[in-house]
Amino acid sequence: MENSPSAAALHDTGRKSPVAPGMVIAALLVPVLAALGVVSSYKVQTIHGDWIDRQQAVCRHLPLPTLEHVAAWSGPVLGTSAMAVCALLARWIRRRCGVRIWDTWPGLLAFVVALLNVLAILLELFTLWAAHTPDGSGPVLGDCG
Prior knowledge:
Oligomer: single chain
């Protein structure tokens, strides 16, 4: 019987890939930031709908709420922050463990969420554009007679 080294031993670089608590926290921060970005973009639509309802109730034009613009800007900011955290996590995993981001479970979680977050960022940017674009038809105030 021959004592040949296993395939895992041949590819061992001598570095272990321990999952540090900071790595898990950073990896969990990526989905949290991405989800908050999507929620804030959804909140823009809710704020806008409530603003239209208030205008119709008082039968006059009201100024746009500032909270709508804050929520519209927070979506892309949170989405790109999630991407930045994922990039920093990838750099940290590469330097500390010598492996790619998807070779550890926290890194894989952050990487998959970051890939899905690309579509969410596009949605958030569209919502930001829509919040700063005036309505072409204007708000319909209803029967104010």
